[in-house]
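README: folding subset

This subset contains proteins for which both the sequence and a predicted C-alpha cell string are available. Records are stored as plain text. Below is the entry for 3-hydroxybenzoate 6-hydroxylase (397 residues), shown exactly as it appears on disk.
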Amino acid sequence: MSNRKKAIVVGGGIGGAAAALSLAQCDIEVLLLEQAHEIGEIGAGIQLGPNAFSALDSLGVGEVARSRAVFTDHITMMDAVNGEQVVRVDTGKEFRECFGGPYAVIHRVDIHSSVWEAAEVHPLIQYKISTKVDQVHADEKGVRVTDTNGNVYEADMLIGADGGKSVVRKYTVGDGPRVTGHVVYRAVIERDNMPEDLRINAPVLWAGPQCHLVHYPLRGGSQYNLVVTFHSRKEEEWGVTDGSKEEVLSYFQGIHPRPAQMLQKPTSWRRWATADKNPVAAWGRDTVTLLGDAAHPVAQYMAQGACMALEDAVTLGSAIRKCEGDIRAAFKLYESVRIPRTARIVLSTREMGRLYHADGIERDVRNLLWKNKSQDFFYKAIDWLYGWKEENCLVPR
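--- output ---
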C-alpha cells in the first residue's frame, strides 16, 4: 500500500490544471473532477505578466506557453474621447530584465492547453469529466465529496478550483457575489478585418466615460482580441449570454472615430455581466482550501485573473514542501500569503475600473496622473505585482 497522500481538485480550468500539476510535483496523487463533458477552456484572449511566466516556469510549462504567446512591445492607455495617449509602459528588453520575464498576450485555450497537456500525462494525476460536485465534507479523517449522481470520492485534502460560483466555497465561506453592474463584451477579429492603424503589437486600452475598449493580437497576429466594457443602465444578473452590436453601440456614443471603428468589426459577441466577491479572512477549513476564481473572483481591469490562479498553484506546492507534508499547516501558510496579495488585486482592480471610466474633472485628473513619468517610475510602481517568483512566494508582497 502506498503512503502517498491523495488530493481532490474540483475544476479543470487554468487554476485547477495548475493546482493538479503543482500537487503532483509534491508527490501527491491527484483526482481532478470537472463538471463539463471535456477538459478545456472557452473565451478569447488573456494577458500574462512576468509573474505568470514565473509560475509557468515553476510548473515546467513555461517554454510551451511562450511558444504560443505573442510578446508585446508596450502596454498603452489612450483617451477614448480625444484619441490622445495617456500612458505607455514599454515591455521590451529593459522590462524583461527588470522583472525576469516578458509581458504577453495569449488565447485562453492556448494557455490552458499549455498547463493541461503536462497534467494530463502526469502519472500521479487522474481526472473525471461530466462530474458535478454538489456536497463537500471534511473532518479529522480527511475529505469527502459527492457528485450529483451519488458517487463519493475521498482523499486527504480538497482544493476548490471551481470558479466564481464555486460549490466548495459555498461549503467553506458561504458568501454571495457582488454584481458590479459592469458588462463586458468579448469578440475575436480576424487580422484582415482589423483596422490597419490598430494592428498594434500591444494591449491598447481606450478609456472613455463609463466605458472602455481593449484590443491586442492573438496567435501570431492572425487574430485580434476585442473587449468592450460599459456601465449597464439596468440591473444585471451575474452570467454569460449572447450579445448584440446594437447594445454595444448604444453605450459608446461620442468616442473618438479611431477606437469606434472596431465596434463594427465583430460578427458575433458574447456578453458577460460581471461580479467579484469581497475579500475574506479565510478561504478554507481543515484540509480544504480554495484557488483561483473560487478564492478571489475579480473583475478584468488589471488582467490578473489567470495570473493569480497560476501563482496560487505554485504557492500551494511551495507551502506543502515548506511544511513537510503537514497539510493543515501548509494550507494555513498558503492562505496567509495568498489572501492579502489577492485581496490587494481585487481592491486595486475596482479602483482601476474607476480610473478607466472617469468622466468630467476626474478624467482630467486621471490624464495628468502619469504625464511625463519615466519608465523607471512605472517599473517601481508595479514591482509588487510583476516581481513575484516562486522563491519569494511565501513572503507577503
